[in-house]
Amino acid sequence: MRVLIIANDPLARSGLAALLAEQTDCEIVGQLAADLAGEAYVFQPDVVLWDLGWDASDEALDLLRDGVNDLGDPEARGVPVLVLLNETDGASEVWSAGVRGMLQRDAGPDRVAAALKAAEAGLVALDPLFTAGLMPTGQAPDDGPPIEALTPREHEVLQLLAEGLPNKAIARRLNISEHTVKFHVNAILGKLAASSRTEAVVRATRAGLIVL
User: Fold this and answer.
1) What is the CA radius of gyration of the chain?
2) What is the mean pLDDT of residues 7-26?
3) pLDDT score at 201
């Protein structure tokens, strides 16, 4: 997987390159400042990792939008972009730019590599902190019933459901009781209008709510 790193901070670029170099699936093909993102096609990346820095300013968001548009050009083969964010405030603006995923800046290298691989495969990779405001109440991902917004805890349980964990394992992972897990699962099924855990995961995947 050929990865291009884009960030205005040269230390962030070199740090991310060093972290991802340890991942066997990642080949770092280049590093660019955000205002040079239009040159990304030269590196022929499979996926782009874009670090927005500590503050997602209007200028940073404008550069991201322009960069995603450039990467969507046929010459650039519609390269997917995974963004690293420091705060949740700008998540909706970042998502509307057409990115394929968003993670926190302190995400570990394994998590970042997994999200990059998912983005390359055409999947969505979202940190639970960023998902709550991305699916407004009443929006449906398909022709099914509308989806009611999930709580942060329900997002965590949904993610573990997607990983195939039973209630007991979810309870241990989140340090809550099995009874509480059952309560959250029932709430998730209701909000996703699903009759089973599998159907809930499928609907959540289509809605972009599943996190790697």
Assistant:
1) 18
2) 89
3) 80
Q: Could you tell me the pTM of the whole model?
A: 0.64
| Distance from the first to the final alpha carbon of the chain | 17
Least confident piece of the model among 10-24, 137-151, 152-166: 137-151
| Look-up of token digits 């519609």 | 78
Structural domains present in the chain: 2-131 (3.40.50.2300), 152-206 (1.10.10.10)
Q: Which of 184, 185, 205 is nearest to 195 (CA)?
A: 185
Instruction: Identify the pLDDT of residue 137.
Output: 43
